[in-house]
Design brief:
The chain is of the alpha/beta class and 552 residues long. The chain is built from 17 helices and 19 strands. Helix content is 37%, strand content 17%.
């Protein structure tokens, strides 16, 4: 038997587009002699559909897509994910299901049992868990259908759950495991995924065919990396990351094993590829083409610009250089050099005149009060207004350039440098931004107009917002090498203040940093969607009260 895995980029709610992609994949698999083709979790509607699932018409259109796939299943089995209505009044209205179609009919279906309700996941809001488990028989093989999280409780070793779906199917002695996934990317997910799949294969002694989504859905990025694992626990094949694809596998060869083909998993390279895909899909799926951002000569805007050029093309990226009363000459030079390296349109729009006009208008109110953060924020808000004006006038989407370190401690101005339709680096710590810059500058000739897109001075100089004379970030914040470690252990590691001090961090530093994080939650609530590349991103996956007292 030959099994095809279709790793596709779906678009939430785009039923016609998703169905067309799937039908084309079916014909492609048929031409290659496949007996069976497998698509991902909730493939017909895209993942995560969230509250679209509460619309009857949405579910009706999902079922219409399943019927269309049924009609295409003559001579080839098709497995695809879709929501199913729950006929029982008690419980949730829907199941998250895997349909098995062949010769114009549904010959089997398996509902998802383990419904993740943590971090970015909220599936129990919509779905009823499965309570019946049975393999589907197809061409002499018993196939255990599982959906994403169903394989993440190997032998009941996951305390979140009380049932192991594959253990429930074990008495039927299945020959193959098919897993339909929609597994969002973070930089460690690929390794965790392999570990879980290998643990399942070791427990049950049968091969697994695991198919994942690829593409971005607003803040969530799906990396693909679909996997075929032989019964010996070796990775027979791992499909490319961040690319659509279809591959056909001969079950007999997979059972023999011996082949091992994995994708490289270097952290910064993965983050780079994820962010490029995240930008490209955000624009493409919204129907926009062009981006605007402010280019300051600093590292964050430089990296954001380089990623946008790679994602959208130089003709679709425009930048404003907005020198102010405290801007250094080298910042303007660095920004201009990057724009010329990238071959993008740039305009110089000085803000000193507008800044003076604001100060004059406010002088009757401010009187002789000294210069402080108010005047700094006015400069940032003037720049934000200019960028939004160009965005409105020309139909561009403004890209936000703030990094995760800044977002964490509130080192950004609401309605100023926090403006934007998409936060590109909001899940990338400052130290990782520097690593991304070096990675971008190491890319082969041909990726940009000139190798080394980011000027070395933007990388070497001390970071500064340049909103007051001789300002440096380190005037207000700890050095980023220290700050980022504290933030990582607090945000990703969920370590409390006592634990952080026990790890060796200074007690006063811990108290200061954690207070900054917690009192600035109101800013993050108003920020643009953040492309998720870490295990704990700001946004849907981290829900904190704005007025909470803890550690404040």
């Amino acid at each position: 038997m030959k099994i095809a895995l279709a790793q596709l980029n779906y678009h939430i709610g785009n039923f016609e587009g998703n169905l067309q992609k799937m039908l084309e994949a079916v014909e492609n698999a048929r031409r290659q002699g496949a007996d069976l083709i497998c698509f991902g979790e909730l493939a017909v509607c895209g993942y995560p559909p969230r509250d679209f699932l509460e619309f009857d018409d949405f579910i009706r259109r999902c079922q219409a897509s399943i019927q269309a796939l049924c009609q295409a299943s003559h001579g080839i089995g098709i497995v695809a994910g879709a929501p199913t209505r729950n006929p029982v009044v008690e419980g949730k209205d829907l199941y998250n299901s895997a349909y098995f179609m062949y010769e114009g009919a549904v010959i089997g279906a398996q509902h998802k049992a383990l419904l993740p309700t943590y971090d970015i996941f909220d599936e129990y809001r919509y779905f009823e868990p499965a309570r019946v488990f049975r393999p589907v028989e197809f061409k002499g093989h018993k196939i255990a259908l599982t959906i994403c999280e169903d394989i993440w409780n190997v032998g009941n070793d996951n305390p979140l759950y009380t049932i192991c779906p594959l253990d429930e199917m074990r008495p039927y002695r299945p020959d193959i495991i098919l897993n339909l996934s929609a597994s969002p990317f973070h930089y460690g997910q690929a390794r965790e995924r392999l570990h879980v799949i290998r643990a399942n294969v070791a427990r049950y002694g049968i091969p697994m065919f695991y198919v994942n989504h690829v593409g971005a859905q607003t803040d969530l990025i799906f990396d693909g990396g679909s996997i075929v694992m032989s019964p010996d626990g070796q990775v027979f094949d791992e499909m490319p990351y961040f690319q659509e694809g279809l591959r056909v596998y001969d079950l007999a060869e997979v059972l023999r094993g011996g082949q091992q083909r994995e994708q490289p998993k270097e952290k910064i390279a993965l983050i780079h590829d994820a962010l490029v895909l995240g930008i490209r899909d955000y624009f493409g799926k919204l129907g926009f083409r062009k981006a605007i951002l402010g280019l300051s000569g600093g590292i964050d805007s430089a990296v954001t610009c380089a990623l946008a050029v790679e994602a959208l093309g130089a003709d679709n990226v425009r930048v404003l250089l907005m020198p102010g009363p405290f801007s250094s000459e080298h910042s303007l030079t660095d920004a201009r050099q990057l724009a010329e390296n990238a071959g993008i349109q740039y305009d110089v729009v000085p803000i000193s005149g507008a800044y003076d006009a604001f100060l004059n208008a406010l002088k009757p109110l401010f009187g002789d009060r000294p210069f402080d953060v108010t005047e700094e924020n006015i400069q940032a808000r003037i720049r934000g207004t200019l960028l939004m004006a160009v965005s409105n006038k020309f139909g561009h989407i403004l890209l936000n350039t703030s990094n995760k370190s800044e977002m964490a401690v509130g080192y950004g101005t609401l309605y100023g440098d926090m403006c934007g339709g998409l936060s590109v680096l909001g899940d990338v710590y400052k130290t990782e931004v520097y690593a991304l810059a070096h990675h971008l500058n190491s890319l082969p000739i041909g990726r940009y107009a000139r190798r080394g897109i980011i000027p070395e001075n933007s990388i070497r100089k001390p970071p500064s917002a340049e909103l007051r004379p001789n300002q440096k970030d380190s005037d207000s914040l700890p050095e980023y090498e220290v700050l980022d470690r504290v933030l990582f252990h607090y945000i990703e590691g969920r370590r409390g203040p006592r634990e952080l001090v026990e790890m060796g961090f200074d007690e006063a530093l811990v108290a200061r940093v954690l207070r900054l994080v917690n009192i600035n939650e109101f800013k993050r609530e108003q920020a643009a969607p953040v492309l998720r590349v870490s295990p704990k991103s700001f946004g849907m996956g981290r829900r904190m009260p704005i007025v909470g007292k803890y550690l404040s």
